[in-house]
Amino acid sequence: MVENFSEWFHDILEEANITDSRYPIKGMAIWMPYGFKIRKYMLEKIKELLDKDHDEVLFPLLVPEAELAKEGEHVKGFEDEVYWVTKGGRNDLNEKLALRPTSETAIYPMYALWIRSHIDLPKKYYQVVNTFRYETKHTRPLIRVREITTFKEAHTAHATKEECDEQIEDFIEIYKEFLDSFGIPYLISKRPVWDTFPGADYTMAFDAIMPDGKTLQIGTIHNLGQTFAKTFDITFEDKDGEHKYVYQTCAGLSDRVVASIIGIHGDEKGLRLPPMVSPNQITIIPILFKKGKEEVMAKCTEIKEALEDAGLRVNIDDRDIRPGKKFYDWELKGTPLKLELGPRDLENNITIAMRRDEGEKIELALDDTLVDNVKDLLDKSYENLKGSAWKFQEEHVKFTENIDEIAELVEAGNVAAVNWCGDEDCGKEIEEKTGYDVLGIHKDAEDGAKCIVSGKDAKYVALVAKTY
Ligand code: PR8
């Protein structure tokens, strides 16, 4: 699978009914029913985490040109990617309207109206919307799309720089918990200046290593400082009566989260879904013969109800096809646990459980231990997926002190970790010499470490990778 990950990924999206990319606009696809459910459970999780101290809002899709153009750096970063609406019916519009590529310029003029006093702060809003980016790089379903259908963007405003910095840490914790719940490993880095979000002071990014060794940026958190506050005049009256600009952050995740779940956990048989997002956490497969059919089906229904009462998502595959085909289908679709039940099992008062992540068959008694045993297997399945994904990541970050070795490591499917003095010139030289991207500062360098380019004292360990 690693050799042809791209092909595997495209095939599985169609075979497992995740998305259909045949829609006649490049970079825009359809969420199919099975994919839509995965998306729904993923969304429920991020909403649960954000709802603890954010409020959900919903802004219009269109942004007036004048607002979009206000913040110089920001507009420069996005100008090649904006879709414009220029007509209403047959009439030319007085002002061009942008399909939001992201919503800073839609939200912040309203923040300027809503934020008056220190009692209005902090303001923490988020929305889940579709955003549009006319991506010029090669588009890929879920990974690089022109309509990002599940853009989860949070925007916060604070009275002080300290609170703003704390918010960055809070987002990091929220994103960790979010990705942990699907067992997705991540590398956190501070992006280099040249790859910082347009208009931000700095950007913290979560990257995941996909099976082909390329990294996927799955989420970003931006410290906006006071740049947008000054552009959009977002001020508040402090306790001492002074008018001050707010400090701001924004953070976003996209459809890429689903891509990482599919790509990182999948295997040659198909998806291996973590229970949190699996449309069915348990699939019951009745083994039916003419004799005893009703009894087996009745028992399957009874098991389903008992598991559902315990809060689990269960389906019975009672299609009139060979059980082998059913096993094949649910392996492809990655249901975490299958329960098989035939007349002989019924006689023995057992069901055969099979975890998707490792495939071993286990007999479970059909008594009041069943629900706990099933939950236990789901937990083990999640832990195993998570553990092996983290292990893969650990094995694929390789340190080197030799710039010529970076290509060797990256071409073998790794992310290279190197000592870096932090100077832009050295960072850019790494990129130019290797053709890969500097993901950014991953951690502080050890005492005595020397920059891989200049040989000066190194401040940081930077990550270098081929990126999506
Ligand atoms: C912001 N403003 O916009 P960001 N296809 C799929 N996913 C994408 C794409 C794409 N074409 N482009 C970006 N992403 C800030 C924060 C509001 C929220 C994903 O930030 O431009 C990437 O995972 O960094 C990226 O990390 C995330 O959206 C946020 O986009």
UniProtKB/TrEMBL annotation:
Q: Name one GO biological process term.
A: prolyl-tRNA aminoacylation
Compartments, as annotated in UniProt: Cytoplasm
Q: Give the enzyme class.
A: ligase
Q: Which GO cellular component term is one of those annotated?
A: aminoacyl-tRNA synthetase multienzyme complex
* Functional summary from the UniProt entry: Catalyzes the attachment of proline to tRNA(Pro) in a two-step reaction: proline is first activated by ATP to form Pro-AMP and then transferred to the acceptor end of tRNA(Pro).
Q: What is stated as this protein's family in its record?
A: Belongs to the class-II aminoacyl-tRNA synthetase family. ProS type 3 subfamily.
Output this protein's name.
Answer: Proline--tRNA ligase
Origin species: Methanobrevibacter millerae
Encoded by which gene?
proS
